[in-house]
Amino acid sequence: MKKAVLMLLVIALLVFPFAALGQTMEPYETIDLDLSQMSGTIAYAQVYQMISDPEAYVGKIIRMAGYFDVFEDMDTGIVYTSCIIPDAAACCAQGFEFVWAGDHAWPEAYPEPGTYLTVTGRFETYLEDDWLYIHLVDADVDWEAEN
Amino acid sequence: MNVFQQLQMYLAMPFVQYALIVGTLIALCSSLLGVTLVLKRFSFIGDGLSHVAFGAMAIAGVLRLTNEMLFVLPVTVLCAVLLLRTGQNAKIKGDAAIAMISVGALAIGYMLLNLFPTSSNVSSDVCTSLFGSTSILTLTQLEVWLCIGLSVAVVVIFLLFYNKIFAVTFDEDFARAAGVKAEAYNLLIAVVVAVIIVLAMNLVGSLLISALIIFPAVSAMRLFRSFKGVTVCSAILSVSCALIGMLVSILGSTPVGSTIVAVDIAAFLVFSLLARLGVNRRKA
Amino acid sequence: MPQLTIENLSLGYEGQVILSDVNFSVSAGDYLCIVGENGSGKSTLMKTILGLQKQIDGSITFGDGLSANEIGYLPQQTAAQKDFPATVWEIVLSGCQARAGLRPFYSRAEKQLAKENMEKMGITQFAGRCYRALSGGQQQRVLLARALCATRKILLLDEPVSGLDPKVTQEMYQLIEELNHKEHVTIIMISHDISAAVRYASHILHVGHEMFFGPTAEYIRSAAARRFLGTEGGEDA
Lengths: 147, 284, 237
Hints:
The complex is a heterotrimer. Chain A is built from 3 helices and 6 strands; from the N terminus they run H-H-E-H-E-E-E-E-E. By secondary structure, chain A is an alpha/beta fold. In chain A, strand 2 and strand 3 (79-85) form a beta hairpin. Chain A is globular and about 35 Å long. Chain A starts with a helix and ends with a strand. By secondary structure, chain C is of the alpha/beta class. Chain C has a domain at 78-150. Chain C has a 6-stranded mixed beta sheet, with helices on both faces. In chain C, strands 2-1-4 form a 3-stranded antiparallel beta sheet, with helices on one face. Helices cover 38% and strands 23% of the residues of chain C. The longest helix of chain C has 17 residues, at 166-182.
């Protein structure tokens, strides 16, 4: 099943190289849902909605802001990158997986985990081990470099 | 974006609309029986039941029930009946029994959540059930309708039995001596309280339910001198505090439950101050 | 036929007998005072008659057209009531609750009854006032008006004058006597005040180690009274 993801990743990288090549600061003209402009409480609830009813959001362009987090699967070698959206109660933070558009060397090109970043991408679902997962593909990632 | 534009954007979201409607109804319900609970010394039942509801929620989670409320509700109602019985029969032991049931439910519930985690984030589950961090904003369609239905039922029952609730609250012995079925009404009150607690868990979480029930009633009692006045005032107060609390929390990114309770506390302080200043000298 | 007949009654808490072999009867228009030392079980006896507590043995029979739900009760005040937000009108009207049955609201006739009883007790002007702001005597009048809404036949009063000053106590006794004489309401009253009891009551029930039941005149001559009344009773005998 992990292979499927790998395939998906490969396909994503193959099909959308232009987005990465022609990457400017603002590749997405319209954003359907901008979580970065919402309060923590609302953003949390919105993410919850996306998790509980993913079909309604497939294909939507979504922007969010949060902390960079990484999970590396030791067996498959796949690196999952995500954006952690903190919540108001400070205990129910939710991670949102994203796939950075373009070819970036891991880990050199990536920010340090914990860096505050803004991610804009297209909402998609995928199956892995019979579980339905959600992520943002073809994502623009932006962060302020540390001095 | 200024605050008003932001608010406008949030209010257009369906889940925010549901939260405001359901939150208002829950606040209304929970304020109605506050006076009765405080004056009948039933507050302890409310407190005990909220812990039971937490335990039941944990069991529902472990059993992976799709709709937790449908399990939590009957369990809490059953415990309400049991607690009422023990509370009335054995005078000293009753207190200990309630403490045992409520703390026991809390401990078992927390343990179950840790032993059989339903999601990767146990602390998140616990936090949501205890403090209702954002539950009101994450209701499913079925839960929304269930909440609306139950709230309306609670309000209708309260209106139909208002005079009887007053009679058994003010003087149970007199009512019973005159032939009023006080035990039946006590049971009714306990069942309605259980329903309110299960509802309120969605709004403020199980640890803060008592605050939602008691604060508006106690605040209203500072200023109003008639049962009707206190009831109407605490209903209006509870709904206003819940609405203000919800709006503050979605705009200011504070947790919903504790923000509502904070507004309730602020209202209590204002009412106490007004009472000190002698506003209550006016009749009724 | 008596309104209330008590035969071989034993009562107490959780199987523990406080009083046993209680026998007495009350007929329409009687004024019965229940006297006895503190802790002799007077209040428990009254609660047992009212059905608030199960008797251990014996029988309580209602007769002469009186049914168990036509009793007016004036209980001792509870701590909760001292802090209760309710107007005089709300409380008096609640006396009609048993009449209202399952009907959610009070009828016009019930409201009229509450008004009449408030007038009888001279508390009409307090209708909108808060109960807890009234004086002790006024509060007792409110509770009496409420009890009258529940019955026209029999009133059970548990120490109606406790905590009242002498003048108000006197007024209270006169009010109860008037109800007994003019309205022909049967009175059963627990009293600490033995001199008032023998002055107003037609019958006396003395509970304790020595039991007595009979007309007041007989009670004054009895051994139980002599011991209980002390010098006062001794002189009379």
